[in-house]
Amino acid sequence: MSLKRIEQHRSFNGELCKYSHYSEVLQCEMTFSLYLPSNEEIKKIPLIWWLSGLTCTDDNFSQKSGFQRLAEKHQVAVIIPDTSPRGENVPDDEAWDLGQGASFYLDATQDPWAKHYKMYTYITDELTALASTLVPHFSGKESIMGHSMGGHGALVIGMKNAARFQAISAFSPILSPSQAPWGIKAFTAYLGEDKASWKEWDASELVKEASVPPVLITQGSQDAFYPKQLEETVFLKHAREKDRVVHYTKKEGYDHSYFFIATFLDEHFAFHMNYLR
Amino acid sequence: MSLKRIEQHRSFNGELCKYSHYSEVLQCEMTFSLYLPSNEEIKKIPLIWWLSGLTCTDDNFSQKSGFQRLAEKHQVAVIIPDTSPRGENVPDDEAWDLGQGASFYLDATQDPWAKHYKMYTYITDELTALASTLVPHFSGKESIMGHSMGGHGALVIGMKNAARFQAISAFSPILSPSQAPWGIKAFTAYLGEDKASWKEWDASELVKEASVPPVLITQGSQDAFYPKQLEETVFLKHAREKDRVVHYTKKEGYDHSYFFIATFLDEHFAFHMNYLR
């Protein structure tokens, strides 16, 4: 066990810690952050997963969203993985939307990415096992949320594990990566040219599956990446056809930034808590 | 008028803007940030000044404190200056606690600092005039808060202008800069060896003045810079002798970070609003 606690901050009466560890799945050193609420009444607490967007690390959500106030208010733990494998030995690309910081939370099958870019398995398997040892009085109930590429990740991971995650929410997610420039570039590199293999990583396809958790999506109307990267039409059409519980809301005047996320994060926590209590 | 708006974000129903302008006082290009609440009822609104600490810019408070939620809740504008003059032509030092990012919010008298390092006059004069043009329906009521070096700045500027500022608050402030390593280093460089000239920039001395606004100070018990840089004894002794309204509270387990500030910022806004309404 290589787990090291590298930061520790009291925050809103709970505690935010940052850890580093060697990941067997990703074959590199990784960091993640975990917030534990005070749990003064020593009750069972649920766990929310947060996945960040392109170029981010686990720090962006910790430092810019103000989530700790809401996690303490609702007495829920929050775990924040990094957005990709890291390090000198891990393949990268000069572009900011491919390689390190841009994993798209999938399991890559193509060289040179396949050896390290297994973020899906890392999160759903290795980090899940670690989290269970770090959250005292864990209730066993989990949900997942994310932003942009991390909104895509939350939807994909949540829908592929519908029995495990009670709810999914996303800010400005990439809803149809197979048809958006960011997604096409990443999927071509990580999964190859055969688009049949892309379907299991595309929320617009997964939403047609047998079982899908309830979904809340919030999109800013002044988002510079909307609608080009974040088009909702196909996802909503497929959700409607299958009668899914999907709430999609547009917020007037808001952009793609953490200022937007911070503003509406209370709505997302309230949504998740409906299913986590 | 060289004022340019370089960023604009809707945030908690109000608007956060970042500006750049040429400062005649500082003889360089400067940035600052301003938050305007929604003011949907079109009432007169007050203005709070925030001063950040060593190594910061106006971005730290904007991005890490979550203050926008409270500014919108209380319908108060917030202005955030940078922490020093900036640019290639502005003298600097290799150390992080002197020069750019470390102005100590005073008017320097010593070379090479005297030409540019006039942050006291910049804030109380030039930026004040600019702010009055940027805050619609300004009530004319102002208060000031800050963190660490900016807590020192808030106390000094607030007490030197007691008729203007209705209240002062500080997180982990340098309360006796003339006796703390950071302050001694900066004052020696900016003001010279004669300690008589230091008194007008030392909160522990200014608190003895004829008129002092009400003060709230919050200090974390696990702050790595406490008590060495942030000793409160002399300030509190002088405040008590003069019967000042000074609330000094210690928060168990909290450190020097923005996680600490974010946790207790609601108490500070509530304190200020008592005097700004």
Notes on the protein architecture:
The structure is a homodimer of 277-residue chains. The mean pLDDT of chain A is 97. Chain A has a nine-stranded mixed beta sheet with strand order 1-2-3-5-4-6-7-8-9, sandwiched between helices. Chain A is built from eight helices and nine strands. Chain A is of the alpha/beta class and 277 residues long. In chain A, 31% of the residues lie in helices and 25% in strands. In chain A, 53% of the residues are buried. Chain A has helices spanning 59-64, 67-74, 119-134, 149-160, 181-191, 203-206, 233-241, 258-276, and strands at 4-11, 14-23, 28-36, 45-51, 77-81, 138-147, 165-171, 215-220, 246-251. Chain A has one domain: Alpha/Beta hydrolase fold, catalytic domain (Rossmann fold), CATH 3.40.50.1820.
